[in-house]
Amino acid sequence: MQGSNIKRLLLYISLFILVNTANISQAEVFSEHLSVISSADPDSNAIQSFIIIKKGTFITQGIKHSSKQNTISQQTPFVIKFTDKLNTNQILRWDIKVLDKQHGTIKLLSEFSGAGRMLNSGYHWQSKRLDNQIKNRHQLIFRPAPFSHQPAVYKKGKGPKGNRRKYGGGTRNIDEKKYNPKFSYDVTLTIFENDKVTGTHKANLSMDRIDMIRQEYINHYDIKRYGRGDNGNIPIPKRDEISSIPSKPEKLAGNPLTESQYKLIINDGMLDLADKISTAYTDTLKKLKAENSFYDLHKNKLNIPDNKLWVTSGWRNPERNEWYSNAVNGIHQRGGAVDLIIMAPANSRQSSIGYWVLWNALEEKKSEINAYWQLESNGRPMTTREFKQDIEPANGIPDAFDKADHLHANVKY
Amino acid sequence: MQMLNIKFNALIGLLFCVISVSGSICQANTRFIDQFQVEPVIDELLANKITEYYSEDINLPLKQQRDELLKLDTQLETISGAHTNSAIFWFIKGLHHKNMASYYTEEKNLPLTKSHMTLNNEAFGKSIKLAELPGNQLSSSIFSTMKHSLPQDLRIEVTKNEIKLGGNGDNDSYYWYLHWSNIDQLEKAGRKEEAKQAYKKMQRELKASDADMSIYQTLTKKIETETLNLSPQKKFQAETSQAKQVKPKKEKEKTKVYETKYIVILAVILISILSIVVVTAYEVMQNKNKK
């Protein structure tokens, strides 16, 4: 009898340890009655989405300029739901904290004060502190007070003298903890009965990777490309505009259109465009090889090397774009642009001929492809003069193709 | 009357300022500093004008272009004495000669095109030599701009410098193509051992970077087969060395955390089972004793 008691006790102890160990890996789920349903951001088309908006910033939604744009307020509200039935003498107290998991540690950033609205009854409440007591309400729309989300380690892309410094800003490797830290809201609900605590429920709403990307766009919203005002800013993508990486066209070698560690992508037409360009290129390559009639500027026959196209860049999240791009190119960040390189040593004769073939292919299929493209060298487009002249080096190939280091193409907006 | 004159002069002055400022805003994208990532050592307006001639389509009649270019030539000559030891100055001078050559090409004047290209190469050569001295550093964009017309040995030097400075960037994979260019040029110059060393350096850098090795294997294979013409055995060695790539640190750490967690859970389960077995055995023993 004594032995079975010890056995039972041991069983309980081991079960207790097991449950607690499991809790380490699932710290977010505390109570089945309390949940943070989602953001109430109506334009993010999200089941779960929240973004922390930079203090005092009003943003315009929508990835395409042509799409319907809505202005959302500087606070993104979310819904807290409590489903357990309460007695009339029970009182609820809400505590909401925003947590920053920067550098692997959880630290309390701020305790929110703000105003919210009860859904079911239409009862409005106003409070300077959120731990005000609320009676018998099941849903609460919580509207966080705005605060700045600017990682401490973020470096602006400016040099010591204020000029734009290449490789100076942003991050090459997106360290989510450091540069775009994940934030979460911890919600605690305490039930009181006759001034005594009768129950505690906890829930957590944590940014997912899509939210983090959207937040990154907000953090970089001030970057101007096409002039001042809203049109000059890079639009903040909606949730359904950010997706998992699809397979790239077979004819293309190279990276999967993004090297971002988010493992997500914004594809606003770049994949389709890359496919069209690679088809045009391979078709022209085949045709010219069959005809064997490709001549240089001095009418000498050229051997056409069989070099594939390689994708060097597609979608670039703002941090990555800031690292790489000489010009702050909005279209790469919108997933509407693709950079292609001839798979040959940079600026070699093979690559020069390859770019010439590629250029001819694009000019031939201009109306089918229906996009903008330009050959670039060192971040600038080649000039008309460089397409005509042959001085560097004088080798029978127009300078534009000798100097080009990639082809940039983007969809028409 | 005098007061009116002062006001008029002030107004003209203000207008002049506004025009100058708006002019510089228009020229913002052809600024020397934006294009080449370093401060020009000479007057900024002069450097910007030369940059504009190099990187923009100039829509002026040919005669006007020639007048402007010759004016720039005189301006450069005037200040050349003060900058003989500046790598950036010689780069700007070389760029100007390239613009002149470009102009004479359009004029179909072959001898003058050639002579300016020779002057361009001489100036770039001086710039590259001076850049080896301390305090004379050039940017990767400058090296990238210089290389196209240079003789092979200088071009190899420039490509190496470009790699050292991280390449001109602008897109994700170009840097590795620059490495390929370096290997290719060394191989073509008959410097085979250097070419192999350059390839090894590239492999080391690739492994140390965050690049997805499965993607870049296509590239390294192409370098081995098409540029270095490595034998199958050597190719095999190179491939196996690639296969032995180390997992990124972060992933390793993550796996470690998971491993520890599962070990703890497993240990708890095992201890529980063991305790139950021990207690049951103890009970059985006691029951036997009672009997």
Supply database-style keywords.
heterodimer; A: about 425 residues; six-stranded mixed β-sheet; five-stranded antiparallel β-sheet; B: about 290 residues; mainly alpha
Element layout with pairings:
The complex is a heterodimer of chains A (413) and B (291).
Chain A: H1 2-25, E1 34-39, E2 59-60, E3 71-72, E4 78-82, E5 90-100, E6 107-111, E7 115-118, E8 124-125, E9 133-134, E10 139-143, E11 183-193, E12 196-206, H2 209-219, E13 242-244, E14 252-254, E15 264-266, H3 270-291, E16 309-313, H4 318-324, H5 330-333, E17 337-342, H6 349-364, H7 366-369, E18 371-377, E19 380-381, H8 384-388, H9 399-403, E20 406-411
Parallel strand pairs in A: 14-16
Antiparallel strand pairs in A: 1-4, 2-3, 4-10, 5-6, 5-9, 5-11, 7-8, 7-10, 11-12, 13-15, 16-17, 17-20, 18-19, 18-20
Helix pairs in contact in A: 3-6
Chain B: H1 2-26, H2 32-36, H3 44-55, H4 62-80, H5 87-106, H6 110-130, H7 140-146, H8 152-164, H9 174-188, H10 192-208, H11 213-227, H12 232-243, H13 249-290
Helix pairs in contact in B: 3-5, 4-5, 5-6, 7-8, 8-9, 9-10, 10-11
What report would you give on this structure?
The complex is a heterodimer of chains A (413) and B (291). With 413 residues, chain A is an alpha+beta fold. Chain A folds into two domains: 26-225, no CATH class; 243-410. In chain A, 24% of the residues lie in helices and 24% in strands. Chain A is built from nine helices and 20 strands. In chain A, strands 14-16-17-20-18-19 form a six-stranded mixed β-sheet. In chain A, helix 3 (270-291) crosses helix 6. The longest helix of chain A has 24 residues, at 2-25. Mean pLDDT of chain A is 70; it is low at 19-29, 58-75, 103-133, 153-172 and 224-231. With 291 residues, chain B is mainly alpha-helical. Chain B has 13 helices and no strands. Chain B has helices spanning 2-26, 32-36, 44-55, 62-80, 87-106, 110-130, 140-146, 152-164, 174-188, 192-208, 213-227, 232-243, 249-290. In chain B, helix 3 (44-55) crosses helix 5, helix 8 (152-164) runs antiparallel to helix 9 and helix 10 (192-208) packs antiparallel against helix 11 (213-227). The N and C termini of chain B lie far apart (134 Å). In chain B, 33% of the residues are buried. At the A-B interface, helix 1, strand 16, helix 8 and helix 9 of A face helix 2, helix 5, helix 7, helix 9 and helix 11 of B.
